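Pasting as-is:
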Amino acid sequence: MENLNFKKYFLRTLVIALSVSALIGIFIFLIGDFGETEFRLLLTTLTIGGYSLTGLCSATNQKKPDLKSFSLVGMLISIIGFVITLGAIWEIIDFNDIWKTMVVFIILSVAIAHISLLLLISPKTESVRYSLIATVVFVSIVALMLIKSTMTEFEESEFYFRLLGVFSILDVLGTITTPILNKITVKKE
């Protein structure tokens, strides 16, 4: 288990899924009738691609001892989310019974992937470190707010969605500026 390179497995799966998805898409648009089966095949390959991407991002910190558990949780959530989504696509599980769970796993896998990529930044200064911490907090708040909204079927107040918008903006701002700040700042000795 120590020597398993999960990044390699997720990367291979991603490349294969995207290639198969492209071939299926081309076939459907050129000769297919875009029926139910073709639609499910496209959704399946896109699901494989999406969850392979989130799993790959989560695997980026697999070799860091202090982030190994976080990395494994992210990969596991991607795998479970994939299985649930696949079950819904192929009607093994009733979509109406599982859609909230499916959306929660999508939110969690994307949030953990996002945070995993942010954690690749090695802050050169305290201000970059604080920016990184704040951004991780904003990503987490957005994810939790989206999960809450999903569970209540999006029946929050207007203020709730305004607040979600504010945290989303802060999330994007931190995601863009933190690596730039780290690149342009001079490391303190």
